[in-house]
Design a protein that fits this description.
heterodimer, A: alpha+beta, Fumarate Reductase Iron-sulfur Protein, Chain B, domain 2, 5-stranded mixed β-sheet, two-stranded antiparallel sheet, 8 helices, B: 15 helices
């Protein structure tokens, strides 16, 4: 397999971005954008398609098995995890484009600063003030809502989310649902208010996030549960919440 | 003020404990907690909760842990760990962890090296689910100003003065600027995966740079030869991927083709625990059966007899993962598995209060050598990380002086340690290390590896530190002239009571000394209790 990677680079936040095109060859049919970046960077004799040497491409990765969300980037125009982006499946006329996420401030090359996403979780008050437990009727829901990678892919495609806004998107809705599954009545009240303010009210219901989650979290199911409890004052998940 | 290096299970647990006591801490990690290796932990966390009508007890958990570790762990530390395990799991449950439940409480599953069901779980994503709960809990304390995150920052070196740790010198990986962070230090920086690039089930974030630098600074390490090969891993792009022990805990079986039929070698050889023998035993048996002349192909993990109920309720996530990476559905066909480096029992020497060889410096989680002896039982790593983090924090709290809480000043620094090791260097060192530190080792292979590592060309201090740490691993394995747990020597295939001692590695004045140290005796007062 021979693939041309068109990578959007920038030296730092202050610099302009530019395109690097580099050929990547692999015998591994399961090779991913992550394995390509690893191998390109490991090659001390690396050259672009015009034969010019270049410095290693900066990117973040950790688990390489789509469980940590570190390597989220925009590949062929779609946000996904580099470790889950198989080149053979993505190649269009022998090329794949690789860009950083665009909703977050750039740091360098494919690294962006996703702190805004985490600050949103804090300002939404997403924790259990007094602890809490998940009963067997909500084990599955609590499990599903604990799986969010905080990678940012859903925010990247969301037409309503921007860093610094009041609407925090699915990356806050999922943890909020987990906490609702465990919270006592007092804490649940605050969590529901936060949900209405930072999720429900700002959500344009485009459901652009529905099929983008690299962890395959069932967004609709979680939203239905939390909407029921937080907005319609009805049953949350498997039990009646007062 | 306490500086915690690492934001995985151990680091988060330490941060929570300090914050609960009103002590401020900094949580320093190269990436966010969501990216920590702890999220990869799968099968579960051990505690003798006795909810399965099997009359389990912490005393049996203690016995299994000690025996599984081939009696190379501090018995007093293991006693405290197993005694406190039920409270640890209850504490996690009260943070909203959606553990599998039954009518008596938290449901438990079988795991390796233990006769009774003792492993609490959240399907086969237990590490991720625990991490989510602890991250939320730490967020509460971040909001109260008790925990401050430094989430793209790496340890460059400890600030040591007159035998005491006075803080950590760190680099902001985004800006490249550095700062001195004063205060006590809890190391929770994970296993030494980066010594074996691409060859472990861990993360690329665990570069082992921190461990290598600590070793270079003279911090005492123990049992560096003890690295765990997990029996069931598969090769994926750039790494080994773990297939949880829960696959066998829930009924999966290992076999290899012999004379055209399936040979269930573990069940035949070990009728009592069968496929759930401790990992060192299973991995070694797999290695040997594969090498026999009368067998063909790889060892297969056969989960085709698992019920729909188990797949759906307990292992649905595992099934999805196997299909993704092998193209086969484990519900209908066995999958080929291979041993892979998974865990480091050895590491920074810590006592039962998680103190290291340096005053003001503590260690918890996989980076420290304490609970697991010569072989860790599945389900004890998350327990050790959470309990260790809590205990290290308790100890640090009793010593911490809340004086240096000022905002650190980051500035440009010129330090030879800021130059990263070259990929070709770490790859070459990793290849040498695996040559010497395989499942079956020999004096000859170790000598050859030591010689090659000594000749390896280094270009910067980080490379030299890594080379020294690697050499210490090889030399510890060379000096242990016996077989025990994960350390199997073909030239010394038996265990020897004389070697029921820990290897100790100290680097000082440009040279490393390897020695042996006796383990403490179990305190009578504790032994009476169990």
């Amino acid at each position: 397999m021979q693939i041309r990677l068109d990578i959007t680079r920038r030296e730092s936040a202050a610099e302009q971005s530019y395109l690097l095109s580099v050929m990547f060859e692999s015998d591994d049919p399961a090779a991913t954008v992550a394995s390509a970046l690893t191998e390109i960077n490991a090659d001390s004799g690396r050259r672009d398609i015009n034969g010019r040497p270049f410095t290693p491409v900066r990117w973040e990765c950790s688990c390489l098995q789509k469980k940590c969300g570190a390597c989220a980037m925009v590949i062929n125009g779609r946000p996904m995890l580099a470790c889950d982006a198989r080149l053979a499946e993505l190649s269009r006329r022998g090329a794949v484009t690789v860009e950083p996420l665009k909703k977050f401030p750039p740091v360098a090359d494919l690294i962006v600063d996703r702190s805004g996403m985490f600050e949103a979780l804090e300002s939404a008050g997403l924790w259990l003030e007094n602890g809490g437990t998940v009963g067997s009727e909500n084990t599955d829901l609590g499990f599903e809502a604990s799986r969010c990678l905080q990678c940012g892919c859903c925010l990247e495609v969301c037409p309503n989310f921007y860093v610094g806004g009041e609407f925090f998107g699915m990356a806050a809705a999922v943890p909020n649902t987990r906490l609702l599954a465990a919270a006592d009545d007092a804490a649940a009240g605050d969590l529901k208010a936060s949900y209405r303010k930072h999720v429900y009210n700002g959500c344009g219901k485009s459901l652009a996030c529905r099929s983008i989650c690299p962890a395959g979290i069932d967004a609709e199911r979680l939203l239905v549960s939390s909407n029921a409890a937080a907005v319609w004052k009805r049953r949350f998940g498997g039990r009646k919440k007062r | 003020m306490v500086n915690i290096i690492g934001a995985g299970l151990a680091g988060l647990s330490a941060a929570c404990e300090l914050a609960k006591r009103g002590i401020r801490c900094r949580l320093i990690s190269p990436q966010r907690s969501e990216r920590a290796q702890s999220v990869l932990a799968e099968g579960g966390i051990n505690a003798a909760l006795d909810t399965m009508n099997e009359h389990d007890s912490p005393a049996e958990h203690y016995e299994d842990t000690m025996r599984g570790g081939c009696y190379l762990a501090d018995p007093n530390a293991v006693a405290a760990l197993t005694e406190n395990a039920p409270a640890v799991v209850e504490r996690l449950f009260r943070l909203g962890v959606p553990f599998g439940l039954n009518e008596k409480g938290i449901q438990l599953r079988n795991f390796g090296g233990q006769k009774k069901k003792r492993t609490a779980y959240a399907k086969s994503s237990t590490g991720k689910i625990l991490m989510t709960a602890l991250i939320d809990e730490v967020r509460k304390y971040e909001h109260r100003g008790l925990v401050k995150r430094y989430p793209h920052h790496e340890l460059i070196r400890l600030m040591l003065a007159e035998g005491r740790c006075e803080g950590a010198f760190v680099r902001d990986c985004y800006s490249g600027l550095c700062a001195e962070l004063g205060g006590e230090v809890i190391l929770a920086c994970g296993g030494m995966n980066g010594m074996f690039p691409r060859m472990t089930t861990g993360t690329t974030q665990n570069t082992a740079d921190a461990a290598a630098e600590l070793f270079g600074q003279g911090i005492r390490f123990c049992d560096l030869e003890m690295l765990q090969y997990h029996p069931t891993t598969i090769g994926i792009s750039g790494k080994r991927c773990l297939i949880t022990e829960a696959a066998r805990g829930e009924g999966g079986r290992l076999w290899i083709s012999r004379g055209g039929s399936r040979w269930y070698f573990m069940e035949e050889k070990y009728p009592e625990l069968g496929n759930l023998m401790p990992r060192d035993v299973v991995a070694r048996e797999m290695f040997f059966v594969r090498g026999r002349e009368d067998t063909d192909g790889e060892v297969m993990l056969d989960m085709t007899e698992l019920t729909q109920e188990v797949w759906k309720k307990r292992l649905s996530d595992l099934r999805d993962e196997i299909i993704r990476y092998t193209g086969s559905d484990p519900e209908s066909e066995p999958i080929a598995v291979h041993e892979g480096i998974h865990y480091f029992m050895g590491g920074i020497d810590a006592d039962e209060r998680h103190r290291t060889s340096v005053d003001g410096l503590y260690a918890a989680g996989e980076c420290c050598c304490l609970y697991h002896g010569a072989n860790r039982l599945g389900g004890n790593s998350m327990l050790g990380a959470v309990y260790g983090g809590i205990t290290a924090a308790e100890t640090a709290a009793s010593r911490s002086k809340d004086t240096d809480g000022s905002e650190p000043q980051f500035s440009a620094a010129d330090d030879p340690l800021l130059t990263d090791a070259r990929t070709e260097f770490t790859e070459a060192l990793g290849e040498i290390l695996t040559g010497g530190l395989g499942i079956v080792r020999s004096g000859e292979a170790l000598e050859s590896a030591i010689e090659r590592a000594e000749r390896l060309n280094v270009c910067c201090p980080r490379e030299e530190n890594k080379r020294q740490l690697g050499l210490a691993m090889l030399r510890s394995a060379y000096e242990r002239r016996e077989s025990r747990g994960a350390h199997y020597r073909s030239d010394y295939p038996e265990s020897s009571e004389e070697y029921r001692r820990q290897t100790v590695a100290i680097h000082s004045g440009g040279r490393t000394e390897i020695s042996f140290r006796s383990l403490p005796e179990r305190r009578a007062s504790d032994a009476d209790k169990t």
